[in-house]
Amino acid sequence: MKIYTHILFDLDHTLWDFEKNSEETLYTLYDQFELASFGKFDSSSFYKKYKFVNTRLWDMYNKGRIKQAELRESRFVKTLTGLGLEPHEVPQGLSEAYMELCPTKTAVFPFTFEVLEYLQPKYGLHILTNGFKDAQHVKMASSKLHGYFKEIVTSECCGYKKPDRRMFEHLLELINVQPEECLMVGDNFECDIEGARDAGIDQVYFNPEKIKKKGALKPTYEIHCLSQLKEML
User: Which domain of life does the protein's organism represent (predicted)?
Assistant: First the structure.
């Protein structure tokens, strides 16, 4: 194991449990906006369809094919029209309600706080996220993650999105360190792992579902639980 001085973390799906927090939010909104009254889908179908649509839109956003506004504005329209509603039937304010409620949710992955408590005295800890600036800061404050990190770099504030190496280089300049001193921890193979590799940074692929990557280059390290970071570092 090399000697590192700084650990870079992705936020969503790595520390902050996006799936659990989003699911809880969507079940609340299903009731709040009385979506059952349409008689075309239940709350579980609503959640599953949204997850399908949102994942694909985020992939397009990360690849620069759509803008932030389009992602936010279209995901509920695509979800609900895909479930049988007409565009004019999609409730007004649904997207805004999601953006207001979801970031206040507090679920994090198992061992998040134990690992951060262990790492903080030994390393500089930083966040590197493609998530939207306004939402990411609310997420970190609500889930009590803010105090562990020195720099929080979002794609909006630096003008680049992972896997663009310039986003990683922006953070390196901020903290004034060389790539070989850093280790990137993230769940998204393309954005976090390949992006960090292109910037000369070693990587930890957080893969809790043990998804096999066909033909993908190997990350420097791979873990299935955050607790493994305590064993490594």
Answer: Bacteria
DSSP helix/strand/coil, 183: strand
User: Residue 108 CA to chain centroid, in angstroms?
Assistant: 12
pLDDT band at 230 (very low <50, low <70, confident <90, very high): very high
* 1 within some domain: no
Angle at 28 between CA 27 and CA 31, to 5 degrees: 90
Residues with Cβ within 8 Å of residue 122, at least 6 apart in sequence: 233
Compute the C-alpha angle 120/121/122, nearest 5°. 90
Q: Are 190 and 215 spatial neighbours (Cβ–Cβ below 8 Å)?
A: no
What are the pLDDT digits (tens) for 156-182? Answer: 889 999 999 999 999 999 999 999 999
Instruction: Determine contact, residues 223/183, Cβ cutoff 8 Å.
Output: no
Q: Among 104, 122, 156, identify where a domain stops.
A: 104
Containing 129, the helix (H) or strand (E) segment is strand 124-129
